[in-house]
Each structure stands twice: as structure tokens, then as C-alpha cells.
TrEMBL record:
One of its GO terms (cellular component) is chloroplast. Keywords: Plastid, Transit peptide. Residues 74-256 form the Plastid lipid-associated protein/fibrillin conserved domain. GO terms for biological process: plastoquinone biosynthetic process. The keyword Chaperone does not apply. It is found in: Plastid. Its main location: plastid. This is Plastid lipid-associated protein/fibrillin conserved domain-containing protein. The gene is LOC115993726.
Length: 264
């Protein structure tokens, strides 16, 4: 007669407890190394692997705000790299480079941390230095103004007094002659708020110092003012504590960085 085999119950002490559930914020993943020893299982009577665990920690994902801040910082870095060595674009740049710069400008404008700048003029006031503009001095204008050999352009500054509604543009020059001398063109203007992002600008007066430099530009002074005259309107499309971007009624783009509170 066939013998009836009865499987013995597994003692409770040998039952494997359930694994704890991983948390939602930080997950610990347990991976096993490829090299391991094989041992005899006292429970199942067969060979199983004796694994040496390796633990990796998965950090919680970044918040959307952190991602936006990183994107903004990266866009500013790439913008500064793109305008490096272009002499503010004043003597023209290749169209491909110009398009590249405008792409970074539009990206920054889409993430403007101050969407209503004229309501927060404290962020606009102070001294700024021009680092890029689509205004260009080319061909006969550059020749007439002596900007090919005799006259060199220095820094461009803009000082904004929000309490008085005044803006002063300063364009520095150096002239080569028997004695090298430095001078500047100063253009004063008034502005009035016309929208949450736009100001209307009117020309007040201008001057060139010293007199030697005025003598150089006197014949072509109208050309010089025609290039740098801020008359019209300006829309502030981006501004933070360090960088400001604007667009005017003539289609020009201006990129300026903050330098301090006093006139240079």
C-alpha cells in the first residue's frame, strides 16, 4: 500500500516577515552585488544566494521654483558669454550672433522677476553700464565721427534718478593726438510713467567735455545726438538686482548691468 506523505507545517519562527514600505519623499533602494556566496537553506533544502546588500539613497525631486531659478541663472550666464568681446555691438555683429543674443533676451523676458517695473522704481534707479545694444555706428557715420582711428569709445553709463524723473546718459571717449585726452558726451532726459512697464522719454539737454573733444565733434554733433538721443519711449522688459533689459520705440534692445549709485 502506498505511503501517504504529509508535508510538515513550517514553524512560525521561520516565516519571513514582510518588507517595510518605502517612504514617499526619500526612497532607499537595495541592490545586491553580482558576487555572492551560495549557502544551503535550512528551510527549503536547496541552494539560495547569500547577498551582500548595497544601499543607494534617492533624494527628493527639486521644486518647480528651484528649477526656474536655475534656468534663469543659466540664461544670464549664457547671455553674458554670448556678448563677450562684442564691444556692446556698437559697430555691428553677424546676424547669427544677433539672433542668438535675442534668443537669450526673450528667455529672460519670459521669466522677468519684476513684471511691473514702473511700480517698483527702486529696482530701476541708480547707475547702470551698457553691455550690449542693437544701436550701431556703421559706414560713413563711423568715419565722420572719427571712430575708426582717431576717437575710441569708452564705457556707456546711465544714471536714473527716480525721485526727479530724470535719466542721464554718459558716453565716454578717448582721443589720440599729440596728447591723449579723455572726454564724455552727457545727455540729460526726463521720463514719465505711461504703463506698468513703459516710460515716455523727452530730451532735455546735452554737452561734451572737454572743449577739445567738442571741437572734434562740433561739425557732426547732430549725427552723434541722433545715435544716442533717448527721445521716445522705453519698455523695461526685464530687471533684477544686477541686470536690466529694455526695448525702445525704434526696435532697439538694451542690456545693462548695475554698477553702483553714483555717477562714474
Amino acid at each position: 500500500m502506498a505511503t501517504k506523505l504529509v508535508q510538515q507545517p513550517i514553524p512560525a519562527s521561520h516565516v519571513i516577515p514582510p518588507k517595510p514600505r518605502a517612504t514617499k519623499i526619500i526612497k532607499t533602494l537595495r541592490l545586491f552585488s553580482a558576487t555572492h556566496s551560495r549557502t544551503k537553506s535550512p528551510i527549503f533544502g536547496e541552494c539560495i544566494s547569500s547577498f551582500r546588500p548595497i544601499y543607494f539613497t534617492k533624494v527628493a525631486e527639486q521644486s518647480p521654483g528651484m528649477v526656474e531659478d536655475e534656468t534663469l541663472a543659466q540664461a544670464k550666464t549664457e547671455l553674458y558669454q554670448a556678448i563677450q568681446g562684442l564691444n556692446r555691438g556698437i559697430f555691428g555683429i553677424p546676424s547669427a550672433k544677433k539672433s542668438e543674443i535675442e534668443g537669450f533676451v526673450k528667455l529672460l523676458e519670459s521669466q522677468n522677476p519684476t513684471p511691473d517695473p514702473t511700480l517698483k522704481l527702486e529696482k530701476v534707479g541708480g547707475c547702470w553700464k551698457l553691455v550690449y545694444s542693437t544701436i550701431t555706428i556703421l559706414g560713413s557715420k563711423r568715419t565722420k565721427l572719427g571712430l575708426r582711428d582717431f576717437i575710441s569709445l569708452g564705457d556707456f553709463f546711465q544714471i536714473i534718478d527716480v525721485t526727479k524723473g530724470k535719466a542721464v546718459n554718459v558716453v565716454k571717449f578717448s582721443a589720440k593726438g599729440l596728447n591723449l585726452f579723455n572726454g564724455k558726451l552727457t545727455i540729460e532726459a526726463s521720463f514719465k510713467i505711461s504703463s506698468k512697464a513703459r516710460v515716455d522719454i523727452s530730451y532735455d539737454q546735452s554737452s561734451i567735455t572737454p572743449v577739445q573733444l567738442m571741437n572734434v565733434f562740433r561739425k557732426n554733433y547732430d549725427i552723434l545726438l541722433g545715435i544716442f538721443n533717448p527721445q521716445g519711449w522705453l519698455e523695461i522688459t526685464y530687471v533684477d538686482d544686477e541686470l536690466r533689459i529694455g526695448r525702445d520705440d525704434k526696435g532697439n534692445i538694451f542690456i545693462l548691468e548695475r554698477t553702483g549709485d553714483n555717477e562714474p
